[in-house]
Description:
The protein is of the alpha/beta class. It has helices spanning 15-27, 52-63, 84-94, 106-109, 118-124, 158-166, 177-186; strands spanning 2-8, 32-37, 69-72, 99-105, 126-130, 146-148. The protein has a six-stranded parallel sheet with strand order 3-2-1-4-5-6, with helices on both faces. Helix 2 (52-63) links the parallel strand 2 (32-37) and strand 3. The termini are far apart.
Amino acid sequence: MNIGLYFGTFNPIHLGHLAIANYIVEYTDIRELWFVVSPHNPFKQETSLLRDWHRLEMVSLAIGKDMRFRACDVEFRLSKPSYTIDTLAWLHDRYPSHNFSIVMGSDNLQSLHKWKNADIIMRDYRIIIYPRPGYPIEDTAKFNNITVTDAPLMEISATFIRKAVAAGKDVRYFMPPQVWNYIEKMNFFR
């Protein structure tokens, strides 16, 4: 089975994440997409990062019973900071019949060469790229396993949502109602 791995902190998950995930399963050969909740991205600071289980809960609330999606906590069990190559090795060992592809925005493509064992990732795994505002997709001919999608450009970000909530703004329509209710109930980002 072709599985897409959509890595992120999902701090919080929002409609942009879900729209991209929906596009990937509808317009590529990916049949199931796993939202891999990362405890800590080694390229980002942790200052406003909610605890792992809260972000996993919000992903679970967002995807509900949609069988095309799965909330994945695999990186909670691995050493921190989490590195994609370690996650891929762990998943490959446990699910040898699955074909894993990485789903990432064009912003991450620009720093891919800095990732731990980037050469192995680019050699052994397909990478599906979706466009991000301000990060044009350069010539990908130098990469063997890159697929560029025509996914819609999403201008929404978790950073925007966190800042808006901290400023007292009502941004409930930027995320599924269940996620907004959870953020309100837990008084997050204030």
